[in-house]
Design brief:
Strand content: 25-35%
Number of strands: 29
Oligomer: single chain
Distance between the termini: 40 Å
Radius of gyration: 29 Å
Strand order of the largest sheet: 2-3-4-5-9
Helix content: 10-25%
Length: 490
């Protein structure tokens, strides 16, 4: 929910006057400040005003600090009280022999039932209190931005990491191009220009040097993306990001990233063009093995293709509104499609006659859906929530994460860490049980300045030098080093 202008909660009491106005000063006070510093370039009236504003800020922070201390004391007191009540409630009733002789069995049963309800209520309140206390704890994961990939002329919709061992990433942009970048060097190695519309999605083949892209030109393309070791060696660099200014990006300079010494190779012709949709193709993904691909479109359908011939094998119909995303299981012939109709569907191609399951639980457009390495599905929505589901139980989610901004294309790491990109420029990390792990840091020059559209994990989920990538509509992709504090101690 929106907060007041200072972003500070006031303990449930509404402040009547807000921030007080700056009081006026006498001529004597102004003369005093003039006498203190004759060399100061600020006019005395400005200096006095700044002084008063800083005093007000200091008082606000003092009040907030005192309020937080008081809240912490109340939480500690409540926790101790709950522990005492739980111990008392767990003691067996009717231990006194005299009382047992004079009390009827029905009264004992009633007393025991009340005690049991009291213990359940106390335990429930303890769980709620633990969640509040956990919000005061520091992040358990360290996040550091180490690389940036600059060169697209428009927003970057999607980012993907190679799965064949080559240290490269691929990006899809509204500038109608897709690019392949060296992870370590930050250089653009290959630019694909075969689409005539915005490139909305990009995915690496699971075992070959091929890339699948989806576009606003109503098609998906399969194209060759072979990067030689010599290219990586020439363009490799171990220099980390120093936070230099980004103002020179706005002129849409030559592709190739920061410090570009030459243009990237350009590819214009696909190996295979997948057609059949009548509107924007918003996403595409390879099925296990890479012999088939799934596409999702604004025409409310998903298509299954043979990637060797380009033949349309099946058209999946059922969503009531435009599709927003699709994803395939890493090892099984399962596909999920998300839609603006607030649902996502699980399509099972393991049998000759495929089946479909509908998952309902969001209240607005489902913007992203992906599998974990286990039999779970994670969905994100414009309703500002992320839900974790068991594919065998579509009735209710296993966990729900409530957030403060709509969710874009999320990703789950090999060790089940969810990276959640937001419209409000933040990226948050959670585990599958809904526990918050970290939020990517935001500094003046090392953060996205517009919404974060997509995230992608490297295969080495935690511990690698650059293992999480975030793509934003500010035309920039960032590479992050994410590792747990436990790993740092080992």
């Amino acid at each position: 929910m929106p907060q007041d202008g200072l972003g500070i909660k006031s303990g449930g009491k509404k402040r009547s006057g807000g921030v007080p106005r700056v009081r006026s000063h006498t001529d004597a006070e102004l003369q005093y400040y003039r006498d203190q510093d004759h060399d100061n370039l600020l006019p005395p009236s400005f200096k006095v005003r700044l002084h008063d504003l800083f005093l007000q800020i200091e008082k606000e922070f003092e009040g907030l600090y005192a309020e937080n201390l008081s809240l912490q004391e109340k939480i500690d007191s409540l926790t101790e009280r709950l522990e005492r009540e739980s111990v008392i409630g767990e003691r067996p009733c009717g231990n006194d022999e005299n009382d047992a002789a004079s009390t009827k069995g029905g009264l004992k049963s009633k007393s025991g039932g009340q005690s049991s309800q009291k213990v359940k209520a106390a335990n429930k309140l303890r769980v709620q209190t633990s969640k509040i206390v956990s919000s005061f704890k520091n992040d358990s994961v360290s996040c550091r931005m180490v690389r940036e990939y600059v060169g697209h002329r428009d927003g970057v919709w999607d980012v993907a990491v190679s799965r064949v061992g080559t240290p490269v990433i691929a990006t899809a942009s509204a500038d109608q191009t897709a690019c392949v970048w060296g992870i370590d060097g930050g250089r653009n190695l290959l630019q694909y220009t075969g689409h005539t519309g915005s490139v909305n999605s990009v995915k690496f083949h699971p075992s070959q040097d091929l890339i699948l892209t989806a576009s606003g030109d109503h098609s998906a393309h399969v194209w060759q993306a072979a990067i030689t070791p010599d290219q990586l060696r020439v363009h490799s660099s171990e220099d980390e990001v120093d936070g230099s200014d980004h103002e020179d990006e706005e002129d849409g300079g030559l592709m190739g990233g920061r410090g570009d010494g030459g243009g990237a190779a350009t590819l214009r012709t696909p190996l295979r063009e997948l057609t059949g949709h009548t509107s924007v193709v918003i996403a595409a993904d390879w099925l296990p093995g890479g012999d088939q691909a799934i596409t999702a479109s604004w025409d409310r359908t998903a298509n299954l293709y043979d990637t060797h011939t380009g033949e349309l094998l099946s058209q999946l119909i059922g969503h009531d509104q435009e599709l927003t995303h699709c994803c395939s299981h890493p090892t099984q012939r399962l596909v999920v499609t998300a839609s603006k109709d607030t649902t996502f569907r699980l399509w099972d191609f393991r049998e000759p006659i495929h089946s479909v399951s509908v998952f309902q639980g969001h209240t607005e457009s489902v913007t992203s859906v992906c599998f974990t390495r286990e039999d779970k599905v994670v969905s994100g929505s414009d309703d500002r929530s992320v839900k974790v589901w068991d594919v065998k139980n579509m009735r209710s989610p296993l966990a729900t994460i409530r957030l403060d901004s709509p969710v874009n294309r999320l990703a789950v790491s090999p060790i089940n860490v969810i990276a959640i990109p937001h419209d409000n420029r933040h990226v948050r990390l959670y585990d599958l049980t809904g526990n918050r792990l970290a939020r990517l840091p935001r500094s003046n020059r090392q953060c996205h300045r517009r919404m974060v559209c997509s995230v992608a994990w490297g295969e080495d989920a935690l511990g690698a030098r650059c293992n999480l990538f975030t793509a934003g509509f500010d035309r920039i992709v960032y590479g992050w080093s994410i590792h747990s504090f436990k790993e740092g101690k080992d």
